[in-house]
Amino acid sequence: MQIQTLVGGYLYTNCYMVWNEGSDTCVLVDPGFDAEKILEKVRAAGKKVEAIFLTHTHFDHVFGVKDIVDATGCKVYVCKEELGIEHHTKPREICATDFYGEADQVTAAGLTFRVVPADVPSFQINFRALDSLVTEKTQAIILNSPNNPSGVVYTVETLKKLARLLEEKVMEYGHPIYLVSDEPYRELTYGVEAPWIPSLYSDTV
Predict the structure, then answer these.
(1) End-to-end Cα separation, the chain, in angstroms
(2) What is the distance between the alpha carbons of residues 81 and 177, in angstroms, rounded to a whole number?
(3) Mean pLDDT, to the nearest integer, of 160-170?
(4) Can you give the pTM of this predicted structure?
(5) In sequence order, which ranges of 47-174 are alpha helices (DSSP H)?
(6) Which pLDDT value is given to residue 46?
């Protein structure tokens, strides 16, 4: 699996282009800025967009969706509950074709994405669920802290426990498991510590 981070827009939003070794298609995660700039990177990598995954529907994560869909005809996956939040982007601008929920599994561009349910009500990581979902085929885990839209910040204890779990899995399976850390809101926290995730787990992107 290959992951390329694309950064753009006046909020410096992270968009991820993800593809499997040998595949000519890719998945885009949160294309939140100018579509043509994103598509230029896709073409430069020799890929075609098969699907878009939206972690949530704030404007800075969906800005480029409609133009990319118009240009490629790709599918768009979003959590169905996001469409009912009135202050978010209008549904017609999201172009949703498919929906996912907690514990769901979605396959696109030769990759399988699994959703780890939150540990309610704390909204910290549900380690029992995560441990059962990480297998020898797992190549990366995507998380964001501070979390958007819940606003939850993963604690140092939570992140250290995550690092230990991944290190154990790496030893067991004999290959790296990357942690893709989407944390553009880390500098916008007030009265709470937002740990620097790369300092806790070396294979962080």
Answers:
(1) 13
(2) 29
(3) 97
(4) 0.83
(5) 59-62, 65-72, 91-94, 127-133, 156-173
(6) 96
| Cβ-based neighbours of 90, under 8 Å, separated by 6 or more | none
Tokens of 76: 């768009």
Could you say which DSSP state residue 197 is in? G
- How many CA atoms lie less than 13 Å away from 32 in the CB half-sphere? 25
Question: E strands along the chain, which residues?
Answer: 2-8, 13-19, 25-29, 48-53, 75-79, 98-100, 105-108, 111-114, 140-143, 178-181
Q: How many CB atoms lie within 10 A of CB 40?
A: 12
Q: What is residue 17's three-state secondary structure?
A: strand
Burial of residue 3 (number of CB atoms within 10 Å: 0-12, 13-18, 19+): middle
Q: Is residue 170 predicted with pLDDT exceeding 90?
A: yes
Please state, in angstroms and rounded to a whole number, the distance separating the CA atoms of residues 103 and 116.
5
Residue-wise pLDDT tens digits, 53-104: 998 888 888 899 999 999 999 999 998 777 766 555 565 578 888 888 777 8
Please provide residue 179's backbone torsions phi and psi, each rounded to the nearest 5 degrees.
-110, 115
